[in-house]
Amino acid sequence: FALTSNILVVNSKLNLNSLGDLIKYAKSHDAIPYASLGNGTTQHILAEMMQQRLGVGLTHIPYKSAGQVLIDLLSGQVPLTTQPAPLVIDYIKSGKLKALAITGPERLRILPDIVTTGELGVPDLISVSEYSMHFPSGTPNDLVWSMYKVIAASVAEPLVRERLETMGTVPRQMPPDKLTRYLDDDIIKLSQFLKQHNITIIQ
How far apart are CA 144 and CA 134, in angstroms? Predict the structure, then answer.
C-alpha cells in the first residue's frame, strides 16, 4: 500500500507563493479556473473542498488527460490545479510551476520545503491517490496474506523505498484486513461528499 499526495500548483508567472496568497487572489477575482482530470476525480473533489473550507470561488474545468492539464497550466491557459506528485515534481524543481501546498498527511522527502495543508491550518483538506494490490473475491486468505508478506518485504527494501519516495510516493505497511476497513471507510466518506455536493462521475 502506498499514498501519493496531490500537490496544489500554479503557473510560475502568477505572483502567488502560498496558500494565503491564493486565498487573497481568489477573493479579489471572480471564480478562478481550476483544472482537474474529470468529474468525480480526486482533483475535482479537492476543488469542492477548497471552496467549502477556504471560502474561495473556483470554476471547475474537467480535462481528459493529465498531459493536457499540464500543457494548459504551463502555457497559462489555466492558472491552478492539483496533480499527483509524480506528475509535477520535475516542473516544480525546475521552477516552471510553483507548489503552494501538499494535500497529504506529511511533507514529501523529495520536496521538503513544501508545507502540508495540515500545517497551514486546514487538516481536513486532504487529497491523495492510493495504490494497493487486490485479488478476486473468494481468493483464499492464506494466499492473500502470503502475497502481502512478500510485497511488504519488497517495499521495506531501502532501494525500493528510496525509489518510491523520490517519486513523491509514501509507502505504508497496511495488512489486508486493515486495508479493507480503510478503503470501506474512504468509500463511505467520499460517497457522502459526492452526494452532498451533487457531483456526478461521468465516464
Answer: 9
Q: What tens digit of pLDDT does each residue of 56-108 get?
A: 889 999 999 999 999 999 999 999 999 999 999 999 999 999 999 998 888 99
Instruction: Confirm if 25 and 49 have CB atoms less than 8 A apart.
Output: no
Contact 49, 72 (CB under 8 A): no
State which amino acid sits at residue 194.
L
d(CA 131, CA 120): 26
Integer Cα distance of 66 and 196 in angstroms: 27
**In b/e form, how buried is each residue of 56-83, taking b as 16+ CB within 10 angstroms?**
bebebbbbeebeebbebbeeeebbbbbb
Amino acid at 189: K
Least confident of 17-21, 60-64, 172-176: 172-176
Main-chain phi, psi angles of 138, to 5 degrees = 95, -5
Classify the C-alpha dihedral 20-55-62-83 as positive or negative. positive
Angle (nearest 5°) at CA 144 between 143 and 148: 115
pTM reported for the whole predicted model? 0.83
Which residues sit opposite 105 in a β-bridge? none
DSSP assignment of 51-93 equals: HHHH---EEEEE-S-HHHHHHHHHHTSS-EEEEEHHHHHHHHH
The DSSP 8-state label assigned to residue 120 in this structure reads: T
